[in-house]
Amino acid sequence: AQSVTQLGSHVSVSEGALVLLRCNYSSSVPPYLFWYVQYPNQGLQLLLKYTSAATLVKGINGFEAEFKKSETSFHLTKPSAHMSDAAEYFCAVSFSGGYNMVIFGAGTRLAVHP
Amino acid sequence: DTEVTQTPKHLVMGMTNKKSLKCEQHMGHRAMYWYKQKAKKPPELMFVYSYEKLSINESVPSRFSPECPNSSLLNLHLHALQPEDSALYLCASSQDRYSYEQYFGPGTRLTVT
């Protein structure tokens, strides 16, 4: 069965510090992986996606993620946090072939303090 | 145009009311989705439409009734809802039901009183 685990429901960083949000997946077939961001009372915005091309994926707002098959991980990073990065972040996985279903992780709330 | 729009943004309704949520996309996508999201939780899939036909119903109560009048439009009709149905309702679309990437709308915040 396919699943996504986000380690840490809350992450707090100082402005200017490194952001690291962790995501591990379980999949029996090659996965497609996504990170979405959700600001309060808004919908989901796609930050970046991995679709079996380059393992290091760059997204919007300075975020990037690295697909590591050996570790079944797809952690999200940003070198320097900004106050505007405070939001809920969801890791998600989808699968090639067959009927598409997107499975979301439980989410990680990122707080950025001055 | 890579946008999914949803109306209304906010909706307050009583338990005896009938209301509808609307979702629209003009990307030529042939799969559309309804998700329900409770506070501090990830979205949960409710329905999937593929080429205007209902493909997946994730055991959603009949007080939620989806409709796909054409390839650009998706409605969710609401009737006799319960307070626990209060949530953010998100619509999404993808090129087809086999596509891995979904585009999400901003959602409708529903409050049932």
What's the gist of this structure?
Chain A is an all-beta fold and 114 residues long. Chain A contains no helices and eleven strands. Chain A is globular, with a radius of gyration of 14 Å.
Features:
heterodimer; A: 114 residues; mainly beta; six-stranded mixed sheet; five-stranded antiparallel sheet; 11 strands; 56% strand; globular; B: 113 residues; seven-stranded mixed sheet; four-stranded antiparallel sheet
Helices and strands of chain B, in N-to-C order?
EEEEEEEEEEE
Task: State mean pLDDT of chain A (0 to 100 scale).
Answer: 91
Class computed from helices, strands and strand pairing of chain A: mainly beta
User: Stretches of chain B where pLDDT falls below 50 for ≥5 residues?
Assistant: none
Global morphology of chain A: globular
Largest sheet descriptor of chain A: 6 strands, mixed
* Assembly of the depicted chains: heterodimer
Give the helix tally of chain A.
0
Encode the helix/strand succession of chain A as letters. Answer: EEEEEEEEEEE
Number of strands of chain A: 11
Structure characterization notes:
The complex is a heterodimer of chains A (114) and B (113). Chain A is 0% helix and 56% strand. Chain A has no helices and eleven strands. In chain A, the strands form two sheets. In chain A, strands 2, 4, 5, 9, 10 and 11 form a six-stranded mixed sheet that branches. Chain A has a five-stranded antiparallel sheet with strand order 1-3-8-7-6, with no helix packed on it. The mean pLDDT of chain A is 91. By secondary structure, chain B is mostly beta strands. In chain B, 0% of the residues lie in helices and 57% in strands. Chain B contains no helices and eleven strands. Chain B is globular, with a radius of gyration of 13 Å. Chains A and B meet through strand 4, strand 5 and strand 9 of A and strand 9 and strand 10 of B.
